[in-house]
Automatic annotation (TrEMBL):
The chain crosses the membrane at residues 12-33. The keyword Cell cycle applies. Essential cell division protein that coordinates cell division and chromosome segregation. The N-terminus is involved in assembly of the cell-division machinery. The C-terminus functions as a DNA motor that moves dsDNA in an ATP-dependent manner towards the difSL recombination site, which is located within the replication terminus region. Required for activation of the XerS recombinase, allowing activation of chromosome unlinking by recombination. Pfam families: FtsK_SpoIIIE (PF01580). GO terms for molecular function: ATP binding; DNA binding. The lineage of its organism: Bacteria, Bacillati, Bacillota, Bacilli, Lactobacillales. This is Cell division protein FtsK. It comes from Lactococcus protaetiae. The keyword Transmembrane applies. Keywords: ATP-binding, Cell cycle, Cell division, Membrane, Nucleotide-binding, Transmembrane, Transmembrane helix. ATP binds at residues 177-184. Residues 160-352 form the FtsK domain. One of its GO terms (biological process) is cell division.
């Protein structure tokens, strides 16, 4: 009664408030419904069941049966045996085979379901009675924060829930990313984990994203960007690899072992060499001036050795690049980099070269937004030779709460192993003549021609680089690959 009196004569106000109340509550109910549909796991699961049911019906995967009733006969639909199992980040769909009329088509539907569920097929298991396709789903839910990237030597570095770079099992890492796609953030997130367990060396030929980190104690003298120093660091790393093997052998002998064990059994921390913009480094090495002190052959040869033999000694390489064609990667890299990631927008040929033949039929896509919000660091991940799946790089935390620089600042440095000082090897003329199975006259003739082509021999004896030059000339000469002048002209192109 009191209210009636109070609002009597204010119907506009009462009406307005009621309408606003109705509008706001319907909007809230609608948002809640949307949230349940898109985020609620129960709804998401039911939706996938519906998608599978619809897929079966629309593709004619059902039997029909006529059923007689009081009002005449009607058709009843029956599905073959199909099971859908859903977990937080994976799901599997199993289809009955056992000679039923759909079996041949069931064997091939893994790819279609991948598209239908917007999921990534990881595996297919044919266990006789059933074929089961296993998928990774909801990759975005597996995302972790960059500040939480951690790892151990035995288990590897966790980059997302269910995505672990087990560097011992799958040595070396290739990261390809389009500009602005999140490659640098991913590399830095990786460092959060790597710097805590191993010695890290960074080569940044673009002199861009890592130069600032050179001030940090944990990375002091281990971030380089000029061609000479980067080249020297690769050569040094190769020497360290040999020294690590020597230490391992020594410690293994001391334990009377019959077999050499993994590096960590001998108290050696792993080492990681991170090369950002790898093609820039290669082209800088290739374009060195002729009289450069750097032996580009040796540098690339040493890098190759680390790719081939690093794993045993606990040395691992991470290379990052933008788009990459199959031909850009020498086969040593292609076959020996076992873990591969893309982030952001990359070209079709990059997917081909990074994920290879097994993923040739996969529909890779670039996703700009998820739930209406711009998404960074989304891409794919795979172990070399296995199916690729969606990947969300660790999420960059709010800059108020976290900075990579401050995180790295508090980390302690892992010291270098004690390494014997290696003296430069020089070769005497007579030893070279013997090794090349030639005579002094021919040796001197070739030396003269090399001098005419610009080689500046520094002393009476010969460096490793000079020796390699002679070896190449004699190899080609012995194979009859042209006149001496032609051969020298060709060899000099490579000699740089
Ligand atoms: N994982 C991530 N989480 C949140 N934001 C990200 C993430 N990755 C990238 N970003 C955003 O995108 C911006 C560009 O990322 P980043 O510098 O890593 O790109 P990039 O691929 O290295 O580009 P470029 O090749 O041009 O250096 C970052 O400054 C950040 O704002």
């Amino acid at each position: 009664m009191l209210l009636y009196h109070k609002f009597y004569g204010h119907w506009f106000l009462v009406g307005g408030v009621s309408i606003a109340y109705l509008l706001i509550s319907s909007f809230l109910i609608y948002r809640l419904y949307q949230l349940f549909i898109t985020k609620g796991r129960w709804f998401t699961k039911r939706r996938r069941e519906f998608i599978l049911w619809r897929f079966m019906i629309q593709n004619g995967f059902y039997y029909t049966k006529r059923i007689k009733g009081a009002n005449g006969s009607r058709e009843k639909i029956k599905l073959p045996k199909v099971y859908l199992k859903q977990d937080k980040l994976t799901m599997s769909a199993s289809f009955q085979l056992e000679g039923i009329k759909f079996q041949d088509r069931f064997l091939k539907i893994g790819g279609q379901l991948e598209t239908a569920f917007s999921a990534d097929m990881m595996n297919q298991v044919n266990e006789g009675a059933y074929i089961t396709f296993e998928y990774a789903i909801d990759a975005i839910r597996s995302r972790i924060s960059a500040k939480d990237v951690r790892g151990t030597v035995k288990e590897g570095i966790k980059l997302a829930e269910g995505v672990i770079w087990d560097f011992i099992e799958n040595p070396h890492l290739l990261i390809a990313g389009g500009t602005g796609g999140g490659k640098t953030v991913l590399l830095r997130s990786l460092l959060v984990g790597l710097l805590r367990i191993g010695r890290v060396e960074i080569l940044d030929p673009k002199e861009a994203d890592f130069v600032k980190l050179a001030d940090l104690e944990v990375l002091k003298d281990r971030v380089t960007w000029t061609t000479e120093t980067m080249a020297q660091r690769i050569v040094d790393a190769h020497e360290r690899m040999r020294a690590r093997y020597a230490i391992m052998r020594e410690r293994s002998n001391a334990k009377n072992e019959t077999e050499l064990e993994a590096f960590y059994k001998y108290d050696l921390a792993p080492e990681f060499i991170l090369i950002d913009e790898y093609p820039s480094l290669v082209s800088e090495l290739e374009n060195l001036p002729r009289d450069s002190k750097i032996d580009a052959f040796k540098v690339m040869g040493d890098l190759k050795q680390i790719f081939l033999k690093g794993r045993g000694a606990g040395m691992f390489i991470v290379i990052a690049t933008q788009n990459v064609k199959t031909d850009d990667l020498p086969s040593t890299l292609k076959d020996n980099i076992m873990f591969r990631i893309t982030v952001g927008r990359v070209s079709g040929y990059t997917y081909d070269s990074v994920f290879g033949e097994v993923n040739a039929n996969k529909a890779f896509k670039y996703v700009e937004k998820v739930d209406g919000k711009k998404v960074y660091g989304r891409g794919y991940v795979a172990v070399n030779g296995l199916p690729a799946r969606e990947f969300f790089a660790p999420l960059l935390p709010n800059s108020k709460d976290f900075s990579f620089y401050n995180d790295f600042k508090q980390l302690s440095r892992i010291e270098d192993i004690e390494q014997p000082v290696v003296k430069e090897v020089r070769y005497l003329q007579n030893d070279l003549i013997n090794e090349l199975s030639t005579d002094e006259r021919m040796f001197k003739k070739i030396k003269g021609l090399l001098k005419d082509s610009g080689v500046n021999f520094t002393g009476k004896d010969y460096s490793e680089k000079e020796k390699r030059l002679f070896v190449q000339v004699f190899d080609r000469k012995n194979n009859g690959e042209g006149t001496l002048k032609e051969i020298i002209a060709e060899v000099m192109v490579d000699f740089g």
